[in-house]
Design a protein that fits this description.
The protein is built from 1 helix and 9 strands. It is mostly beta strands and 148 residues long. Helices cover 11% and strands 34% of the residues. The longest helix has 16 residues, at 2-17.
Length: 148
């Protein structure tokens, strides 16, 4: 009978060890946070970087009628459209439109040339995260593809 009780007590203690506990939590102090933008992707996101990587966060504003110019990124880019509507033309001359709250994932490399436009009447504001090889530029200007 004692072995049965001891076994039950040990099993109970083990199970409790796997449950989250508030008693052992250490609350934060003196920390504030501000959500700068929130977006939702249409699909899954996979980000990869090899070797030493510069991680850069930028806010980019494109004025009404403005454009980024044709370019590519040496590393992956993840952006949330904070406001406005971004229209991108890709190297195959297909078009992608991303409105406020949308997410843009741009692959790395010279095979992914693109341009961003603001065809709207309000500024497009992007919060952008770059994952580029250490020391690389964030983008590289390119001529327009033949299909443009």
């Amino acid at each position: 009978m004692n072995i049965k009780r001891t076994g039950t007590a040990v099993l109970g203690a083990l199970l409790l060890g796997f449950l989250p506990t508030v008693a052992g939590a250490t609350p934060g102090s003196g920390v504030t946070a501000t959500v700068l933008a929130k977006g939702t992707t249409e699909d899954s996101i996979t980000l990869k970087a090899k070797g030493r990587t510069d991680v850069v966060f930028r806010e980019i504003t494109i004025a009404p009628g403005g454009t980024t110019g044709w370019h590519y990124h040496p590393g992956q880019v993840l952006a949330v459209v904070k406001s406005g509507t971004l229209t991108r033309k890709l190297d195959d001359c297909s078009t992608e439109v991303t409105a406020t709250g949308g997410v843009v994932v741009e692959p790395a490399g010279h095979k992914h040339v693109h341009i961003g436009y603001n065809y709207g009447t309000e500024p497009v504001v992007l919060l952008v995260t770059y994952l580029v090889p250490e020391g690389s530029p964030l983008s590289v200007d390119m001529p327009a593809p033949s299909c443009s």
